[in-house]
Write a structure and sequence with these properties.
By secondary structure, this protein is an alpha+beta fold. The chain is built from 6 helices and 18 strands.
Amino acid sequence: MLETPGHGDDANGTARTGKLLGRQDRRGGERQQRHGASHGNRLVSPRLSPHVPGVAGGDDEAPFLTATWRHLAFLNYEVDPALLTARLPLGTELDTWHGRALVSLIGLRFLDLRVLGRAIPGHQAFDQVNLRFYVRRPVGDGDWRRGVVFVKEIVPKRLIAGIARLWYREPYARLPTRHTMSGGAPPGLGPFIARYEWRHRGRWQAISGHGAGQPAVFAPGSVEEFITERYWGYRARPAGPTTEFGTRHPPWRVWALRDPCLEGDVAPLLGGALSRHLAGAPHSAFLADGSAVAVYPPRPFAVDTPPGAAA
């Protein structure tokens, strides 16, 4: 099944936010059932689950921020699970795809940002680059919340980095960024090159890939589903409980990326141990069309059992 992506993201993303977030509940039930079946467990996401008091993303809770994420480039790498277990927030487990521990280096366009419903002048269009890995936590009766843990997040805006560090305790860095979407403009009208760059210690580093054609709905059980169907974020706190925040967005469509490439020495920024695994070819790579998103306030949660690696 192929669909044509939405265009005109910078101008029209805000107007579509309510429609897309409202539409997700009608589209999401079947997809959640398929995704849960592919992992052998039932899933809970804030876009589908009933409100639970004190849980991020409940139906009667206002989002902390809304935005439009567009043209998300994913370069996914297989790494030694031992490098990630030490980073697990208390109460979560490492989530693997067919036994493979994956990290993703992602570039995206961050558009139409509103914090507590208010636009921030000068912060309506910028790039973000992040490195993340995949976790899950049990929530009872065979349910799992599948989420992500960020290793590093890069934005060019000092205010955005400050808000994220203060409210979410996320590992943000403020660095210059730039992007290129060349060829078919926008993607879906012909061959294109997607490229995201950031400058660290005076040198530009980048991720890039080539794509063509129309975006496709990902297959159930695919790596694209495993990577993108994530609606929870987790962060360990040095002195205190793990925090959890929910996100809402409709499922995304994807293009395969050919010739994916990471350019530059990222070890000083991302750490030497993980960076060695990023030196080879990615396990997989794709570009997601993106959508309107809502991100909810972080909340601590009680932990009944210690974390462990997923089988």
